[in-house]
Design brief:
Shape: globular
Binding site for FAD: 88, 223
Number of helices: 13
CATH class: Alpha Beta
Number of strands: 27
CATH topology: FAD/NAD(P)-binding domain
Protein name: GMC family oxidoreductase N-terminal domain-containing protein
CATH architecture: 3-Layer(bba) Sandwich
Cofactor: FAD
InterPro entries: FAD/NAD-bd_sf, GMC_OxRdtase, GMC_OxRdtase_N, GMC_OxRtase_C
Domain Glucose-methanol-choline oxidoreductase N-terminal: 9-299
Strand content: 15-25%
Length: 539
């Protein structure tokens, strides 16, 4: 028997992640609008959600991570990758790398050129500024006083400074700010932290709004489906503590469950490609072929170099006294390695001279390990990972089963195009050239991965990219925004669902093409812009 939640709501928001927290905050600011926010995870009442280095314990932990895996990937020589997604209020912003990165102006101008009015760089820059509380203060590029706190990293490493100098020797300019529209350059990342603590979307937007009587948050809820009547979304059905419950929405249902979660809900609702749904016994409500297709992600080639004559986190990790000092430094000053984002130094450059703009991004770390979740190596080393910012490979996400606890099929199809294979090979070449610069000579870098036995020809490097390539957790695009004449478009430029009334998708899944950098801050922008559209259209 299905229960009915008390009262009716104007808007139901599915997912209290990066996007959902912002949407719920903005909509509930109107006291006449009653908002229900549903989150599959729980509260962020665990210390490792707040200490920056806590991502080491949160990722791969079922308390905080959906624990997804990709299908075996032909482009990765048959390997399957862990695919972390946040399962807690704040979503992936509670467990991610904390790197605040907008991408490039040309990314958004491309969206505008696709016919998506209001999504060009000049349009979205205003939204980014409105969101921010930036340590650089109010300026042409940044805002102050918003809920999205951004600060400079609280420590630097001499060996990372040397890598930055090596990049400059290659002709890459210094950059004090990657978020002005052109991120080509080398510098330390800006991070979503406040005084050495992680700053998630829940902390910045949800918690300040929870006192509002017109906002109701329900946690540990798994949304089964959107309820559709006569071509209109009228509510949702969800499971909480084993009890099926329905809630009704007078105005709209807004999906903010991300590039994976929103697709799962839509497919269980009978909304998506009919040829995928019917074999699972799901009667199609709306045959929309783009729902679950167009998956894009950033694949990095994780190169590791042994070094000597300089300090890395590897030595600190294996020294009990140093680890004790590290904890004390954080407790007393909120400084030191416990404030570290997973990557500190960024380099944006071109894989070859024919590129019109920066097309690869380096994440440089003063540490190394075999794979995420393993202990750090016992030898001093750094990781120099290069990713293709604008991959042409396209994947898909679809249900394997209608069971609510069944993980979906995630197939990114990494390195499935000749262009992506070429950029991956060139990125390894750029990495090798970087590590041979004079600025790094005193550290005697020695290639550990992919290894000196890997040749410099295209075939060898493409295979090596498949061997060492791994995701940096940026899935987007599975409910792409597009014009009505685009057969794969799922939502329009106001994020309204094509073919259904009163349903919107407001999260990373709506990106038609991936942004040139980390995707969390663009997702926050999408949420801010989407919430504004919902309020405007509701007048």
């Amino acid at each position: 028997m299905t229960a009915r939640i008390e009262g009716e709501f104007d808007t139901i928001v599915v997912g209290a992640g990066t996007a959902g927290c912002i949407v719920a905050n903005r909509l509930s600011a109107d006291p006449s609008r009653k908002v229900l926010l549903l989150e599959a995870g729980g509260r962020d009442n665990w210390i490792w959600f707040h200490i920056p280095v806590g991502y080491l314990f949160a990722i791969g932990n079922p308390r905080s991570d959906w624990m997804f895996k990709t299908e075996p990937e032909p482009g990765l020589n048959g390997r399957s990758l862990a695919y972390p997604r946040g399962k807690v209020i704040g979503g992936s912003s509670a467990i991610n790398a904390m790197i605040s990165m907008r991408g490039q102006a040309a990314d958004y101008d491309h969206w505008r050129q696709l016919g998506l009015t209001g999504w060009g760089w000049d349009d979205v820059r205003k939204v980014f500024r409105r969101l921010e509380d930036h340590f650089l203060g109010d300026s042409e590029h940044h805002g102050a006083g918003g809920g999205w706190r951004i600060e400079a990293a609280r420590l630097s490493w001499p060996i990372l400074d040397a890598v930055a100098n090596a990049a400059c020797e290659m002709g890459i300019p210094r950059s004090a700010d990657f978020n002005t529209g052109d991120n080509e350059g080398v510098g330390y990342f800006h991070v979503n932290q406040k005084r050495g603590r992680r700053w998630s979307s829940a902390r910045g937007f949800l918690k300040p709004a929870l006192h509002r009587s017109n906002l109701r948050l329900e946690t540990n809820v798994v949304v089964d489906r959107v309820l559709v009547e006569n071509g209109r979304a009228v509510g949702v059905r969800f499971l909480q503590n084993g009890v099926p419950i329905e809630a009704r929405a007078r105005r709209e249902v807004v999906l903010c469950a991300g590039a994976i979660g929103s697709i799962q809900v839509l497919h269980r609702s009978g909304i998506g490609p009919a040829e995928w749904l019917k074999p699972l016994g799901i009667e199609p409500v709306l045959d929309r072929p783009g729902v679950g297709r167009n998956l894009q992600d950033h694949l990095q080639q994780r190169a590791i170099y042994k070094v000597s004559g300089g300090r890395t986190l590897n030595e600190i990790y294996h020294s009990l006294p140093r680890r004790a000092w590290m904890g004390l430094d954080y407790a007393l000053r909120r400084r030191g390695p416990l404030t570290m984002a997973p990557s500190q130094l960024g380099i944006f450059t071109r894989s070859d001279s024919h590129q019109e703009r920066a097309n690869i991004q380096f994440h440089v770390q003063p540490l190394s390990l075999d794979k995420f979740g393993d202990p750090l190596h016992r030898f001093p080393a750094i990781t120099v990972s290069a990713c293709n910012l604008r991959p042409t490979s396209r994947g898909e996400i679809k249900l394997k089963s209608t069971a609510l606890d069944a993980a979906p099929s995630i197939a990114p199809h990494y390195l499935s195009t000749a262009d992506d294979c070429r950029v991956a090979a060139d990125a390894i070449r750029v990495t090798r050239r970087l590590m041979k610069q004079h600025a790094l000579a005193t550290y005697h870098p020695e290639e550990y991965l992919p290894g000196p036995s890997v040749g410099d020809d295209d075939a060898s490097l493409a295979k090596a990219a498949g061997d060492i390539g791994t995701t940096i957790f940026h899935p987007v695009g599975t409910a792409k925004m597009g014009r009505a004449d685009d057969p794969l478009a799922v939502v329009d430029e106001r994020l309204r669902f094509h073919g259904l009334e009163a349903l919107r998708v407001v999260d990373a899944s709506i990106m038609p093409t991936i942004t040139s950098g980390n995707t969390n801050t663009p997702t926050a922008m999408i949420a801010e812009k989407g919430a504004t559209m919902i309020l405007e259209d509701g007048k």
